[in-house]
Amino acid sequence: MSSSKQIERTAAAWLAQRDGGHWSDHDQVRLDAWLSASTAHRVAFLRLESAWQQSDRLKALGAGLPAGTLPERGQWTASPFLGSREVMNDTTRAAPASAAPRASPRSTRMGRYFGAAAALALAVSSAGMWRYLTAVEQTSYQSGLGELRLIPLADGSRATLSSDSRILVSMSRGERRIDLQQGEAFFDVAKDPGRPFVVAAGARRAIAVGTRYAVRRDAANLRVVVTEGTVRLETDTAPDRHPQPTTLLPAGSVALATSNGVLVRSGSVEEAERQLNWRSGFLAFHDTPLSDAAAEFNRYNGRKIVIGDARVAALRVGGNFRWSNVDVFVRLLEQGFPVRAEHEDERIVLYSQ
Description:
With 353 residues, the chain is α+β, with helices and mostly antiparallel strands. The protein contains 9 helices and 18 strands. It has 3 domains: 4-84 and 104-124, no CATH class; 135-271, Sandwich (Jelly Rolls); 281-352, Phage tail protein beta-alpha-beta fold. Strands 1, 2, 3, 4, 5, 6, 7, 8, 9, 10, 11, 12 and 13 form a 13-stranded mixed beta sheet that branches. α1 (4-19) packs across α4 (105-123) and α3 (39-62) crosses α4 (105-123). Residues 141-232 form the FecR protein domain.
């Protein structure tokens, strides 16, 4: 997987080649293939192309031309964007033999493309334009009840949304931020040391640069399951409370963050993976209270399991079950436990016998 810096350099090279006047149909076919290969390629290309176009307009103003008029490419007067006070054009006389070698036109154009975005950010005071340049993507994704949804992200990462979950994705040059607004999501993070991948939920953040982990939000509680790499769990400190320590979570860790602090259980990667069996359509229970097992099934189904009394709630269950098949789960309970089920249209009520 190419890094974001490598992708931007390739995008700049394509723009410089297209701008050089020797552009063929074959070149366009190759560019279209590169753009189609990845969303990150298209994002980088469009961002640099837009920054260059906006910079052209600003340079025109700096050259003293009327608004909306672009001078011929390569012909500028003194401008804060150029860093030079010479007037240059395409017919400038040849440099003396003693002059230092000049960079090739293609490399000069590539430098301009990289510099255009920075120049525009300094020149434009509008907060909206600044967000346009720095926020590559800001999109909300949601899954329905009983639906799993795979989301390819612009940086090459992937997010898998569990049932009835919602995230807000904001990608910038300095950070990849996911606001987990509801439910649970698993993230397969593309490596990019220069841009941390931050999953935020309320006052807590699970941060990585290239790893695989899941984050689940249950009201004020947060669960993080790490299956590869290391994740840093941070908590904002309220003004009236002691600072919360940062917790490092290696692969195999399952962390539960509540109002009382962070509880970490360390185990094998295989054990952590079992916590995420929902990705393949299963729920795994091991000596789990029936009340908790019922709550898990209810996250995926419109027909709810209702616990009828305290005795049935305390029963312990284990095994792997398809979360889409509530009726089979309830039938097994009736066969193996002192449980009686009353089936209604929108719910199944469990009682102890």
